[in-house]
Amino acid sequence: GDSVTQMEGPVTLSEEAFLTINCTYTATGYPSLFWYVQYPGEGLQLLLKATKADDKGSNKGFEATYRKETTSFHLEKGSVQVSDSAVYFCALSGNDYKLSFGAGTTVTVRA
Amino acid sequence: NAGVTQTPKFQVLKTGQSMTLQCAQDMNHNSMYWYRQDPGMGLRLIYYSASEGTTDKGEVPNGYNVSRLNKREFSLRLESAAPSQTSVYFCASDDRVFSDGYTFGSGTRLTVV
User: Fold this and answer.
1) Which of A28, A50, B42, B66 has the most Cβ atoms closer than 10 angstroms to its Cβ?
2) Is A44 near chain B, with CB under 8 Å?
3) What pLDDT, on a 0 to 100 scale, did the predictor assign at position A1?
């Protein structure tokens, strides 16, 4: 079945550092790929998405490119802020439209 | 504000008690979902409803039942709570046609003692 594997955390960074969170997937067909963010005490919010190969999703300075050849959708941000501290989830939606999530990566940014 | 509303936000149950988690969305979405979130395991699908009048099991349905009351509301019931059901529960909805991803509620933190 469909599955998502994302890098384990926790990740601790200093402000203005570069952030990468790796995500790879296994799926049949052509899934849509998503990154969700969960701030402390809140539900998940959609951060960005990509629906086909080579698409780049972007939002709030974060980017991820749908790489079908490497089955990856890595999340990047060039200069993180304290307000980016959160849990980040990679997810995919296959032919059945259900979302499958990775385990989540906790990111802490220190001033 | 449009979105997904879950009640209650917090709940403590004793083993064997029952309760229903409520979820309502006002975005006219066809599909609704119940997930549980446990440390290190991401979110796992309990049950979902692809459209009004239908429900299906997800990855971890044992110990739960659901009701799609109407297009807006999708409830999750624990008939006899167990400590293993201590978790944070999230309801979500989406419009499959536009593939914009899910909209999540703010969650219910359930502790079973």
Assistant:
1) B66
2) yes
3) 80
HSE-CB of B75 using CA atoms within 13 angstroms: 12
B56-100 pLDDT per residue, tens:
999 999 999 999 999 999 999 999 999 999 999 999 999 866 567
Output the six-digit token pair for A104. Answer: 């989540």
Helix (H, G, I), strand (E, B) or coil at A82: helix
CA distances from A62 to A5, A81, A85, A103 (A): 19, 12, 13, 19
Strand, coil or helix: B84: helix
Q: Which chain A residues have a beta carbon less than 8 Å from that of B33?
A: 98-99
Pick B31's closest partner by Cβ from A32, A97, A104.
A97
A46 has a chain B CB within 8 A of its CB: yes
Strand partners, A12: A108
pLDDT at res. A28? 84
- Chain A nearest-CA distance from B106, in A, is 4
Instruction: Provide CB contacts within 8 A for B4, sequence distance 6+.
Output: A43, B23, B24, B25, B27, B91, B92, B93, B103, B104, B105
Query: Long-range contact list for B60-63, CB < 8 A, 24+ apart?
Result: B60/B36
